[in-house]
What does this fold into?
Amino acid sequence: MKFIEVRWAAATFLLSCLAISAAGSPPDKKEKDKPASQVVDSGSFGVFVKGQRVLTETFSIHQENGTSVIKAQLKEAPGSEPISQKSDLQITSNGELLRYEWSQPLGASLIVLPNNDFLIEKITPAGSAKPAEKPFLMPSTSSILDNNFFVHREVLTWRYLAADCKPENSNLKCQQGPAQFGVLVPQDQNSISVRLELVGPEKISIHGAERQLLRLNLTSDNFDWSLWVDPQDQFKLIRVAIPADNTEVVRD
It folds into this structure.
């Protein structure tokens, strides 16, 4: 097993507060005492291509009566007013999809809903094109990783750490090797398999200051990304590197 030093409070947060841990875990007294609505994370990511900022993603993650709600919106350039895309992801306390919505101002939108052993994607194109439906033979516990929404990568990272890493004393022990996840990419109308693996602590520069973060590798047959999260701040996603696209994503 890989062995990573983290604060106990952060590890406990992953397993009890994010509402994405393994199914069947009964809530303890502290869980029952939590308020009905709780902000888990909020902020924005800057998306840079060859050093030039091209997108800003503003996001929030909060819990409402056991349901995690992940909202995000994109603006295409610094200072631009129109919002280019919006998304709203809702999952249960055991990680099952309740509903996913995506939309853009031109009128295009989509909704993903679970239906028995399927995920059903309902697509409404912009203009006069007819709506369509597309089924995917995937369980409701499948993750959503839509295009450009990096907060979805944060949620997947938390899910991986909660499922594959266990707190012991003041430390976190993670299983050796990558974990595999089936995910749906709604804008591409495609399902893929991705792998996520904890690499370990690294010192990197964020906004000119050196920070000790945890690095993970997110890969599939078609991409290879590096993610960095902060073990001292509830494993929040801080940076993403996509070398093949000369792209870097940094929390503002």
In short: The mean pLDDT is 85.
